[in-house]
Amino acid sequence: MNGDIGITLRLPERDGDGKQVLRVAFPRNDGSDGVRFVLPSRLNEVETVYAMTVHKSQGSEFAHTVLILPEALNPVLTKELIYTGITRAKHWFSLIEPRQGIFEEALRRKVKRLSGLMLGL
């Protein structure tokens, strides 16, 4: 379950006595589009998030993603980061741009890689 993303739900108890229980719902990884429910007590080191960075979302997919750009350019705001943010969305993508032009400026910037390979030659 490392890296899995689930949502905690309050569900009616199975015996129908009106009580509710907490369960964490995770999408199944078997291609069935089903959901598996886990007791919260079975989970270790859970991190509660309401939003996450593009970096943390790598490898995940969401029905709807929102990319909120900063007001000013910074070294990590590059074409590659924006591409990664956009491609996390399965169906819908929303862009929040605090000032006009920041998106275009970021798209013109590419990652500058310094691997150190040339230093040894």
UniProtKB/TrEMBL annotation:
InterPro entries: P-loop_NTPase, UvrD-like_helicase_C. CDD domains: SF1_C_RecD. Residues 49-95 form the UvrD-like helicase C-terminal domain. Signal peptide: none annotated. Gene3D superfamilies: P-loop containing nucleotide triphosphate hydrolases. SUPFAM superfamilies: P-loop containing nucleoside triphosphate hydrolases. This is Exodeoxyribonuclease V alpha chain.
